[in-house]
Specification:
Blueprint: H1 4-25, H2 30-38, H3 42-46, H4 55-67, H5 74-88, E1 89-99, E2 104-113, H6 120-136, H7 140-148, H8 162-165, H9 169-188, E3 196-203, E4 209-214
Antiparallel strand pairs: 1-2, 2-3, 3-4
Helix pairs in contact: 5-6
Length: about 220
C-alpha cells in the first residue's frame, strides 16, 4: 500500500501530465488550469470526475448558468462575478443523483436572494451588486428571467442610481415590499423561478466531462 506521501507524488505527476496535455492540445487555457489547481483538494482528487457535488463543479455550473457560452474565463467569473452574487444570495448545493454506470450526476442549486438591509450603506451595496449581476448576465435564458424578475428593471432607460432612487432606508424597504409583491404576482401567474436550478455532469464517452444546466430538471434526464 502506498504511503500518503507516495500517493501525493503520484497525483502531482498525473496532474502535471494531464494538464500539460490539455494545454498542449488547446482543450484548456492556462487560466482554466490555474482555476482547477487553485481549487484542487483531497475531495476533488478522490471523487469521481463526473461528481457534481464538489465546489469546482458548482462554480463551473454557476458560470454556465449566468454566462452561457461566454463562460470562457472561469477564473474571472470566480474573482469578480461570484462575490457579487454572494452579496445578495445564499447558495446551497444538493446532490440529486450519482450514477456510476452512466458516469453522470445531477445536482440542484438553491438561491436564497436577500436584498434586505439595516443601513443605507448595506442597501447600496446589495442594490449595486444585484445590478452588477443583472448587467453581467450573458446567458440569454437567464437574462430573460432576471428582466422579468420584478420592478427592479435595471436595464430600463430611465433607471436611476441608488442615491437618486433612495434618500432614506424606509424608501428602500418600501421598494423591497413592492418587489416582493411583484414576485408573488409573477409566481401566481406561472412565472419562472429564479430560486432553483439544476446541473448535470457526465462523461461524453471520450473521457471528457461535460456540464449542462437548466431551470427544468426534466431537461437533464
Amino acid at each position: 500500500m502506498k504511503t500518503i506521501l507516495e500517493l501525493i507524488r503520484s497525483v502531482v505527476v498525473v496532474a502535471a501530465i494531464y494538464f500539460g496535455y490539455q494545454l498542449f492540445t488547446g482543450k484548456m487555457t492556462l487560466e482554466e488550469i490555474k482555476f482547477y489547481l487553485q481549487n484542487l483538494s483531497v475531495e476533488s482528487i478522490t471523487s469521481k470526475p463526473y461528481d457534481c457535488d464538489t465546489d469546482v463543479a458548482e462554480i463551473s455550473a454557476l458560470c454556465l448558468m449566468f454566462k452561457g457560452n461566454s463562460c470562457d474565463d472561469i477564473g474571472l467569473f470566480q474573482s469578480e462575478f461570484l462575490p457579487k452574487l454572494n452579496d445578495v444570495a445564499t447558495i446551497k448545493r444538493a446532490l440529486i443523483k450519482l450514477d456510476s454506470s452512466s458516469k453522470s450526476s445531477v445536482c440542484s442549486i438553491d438561491f436564497d436572494y436577500d436584498l434586505s438591509a439595516n443601513s443605507l450603506d448595506e442597501a447600496r451595496k446589495k442594490f449595486e451588486s444585484y445590478s452588477y449581476i443583472n448587467e453581467g448576465i450573458t446567458n440569454y435564458g437567464m437574462k430573460i428571467l432576471f428582466n422579468m424578475d420584478s420592478i427592479l428593471n435595471f436595464n430600463s432607460k430611465d433607471s436611476k442610481s441608488f442615491d437618486e432612487k433612495f434618500k432614506t432606508l424606509d424608501e428602500y424597504k418600501t421598494f423591497l415590499e413592492q418587489r416582493e409583491a411583484s414576485q408573488n404576482m409573477m409566481v401566481m401567474f406561472g412565472g419562472a423561478n429564479l430560486n432553483r436550478f439544476y446541473y448535470k455532469l457526465f462523461d461524453n464517452g471520450k473521457g471528457e466531462i461535460w456540464t449542462q444546466a437548466s431551470g427544468n430538471l426534466e431537461d437533464l434526464r
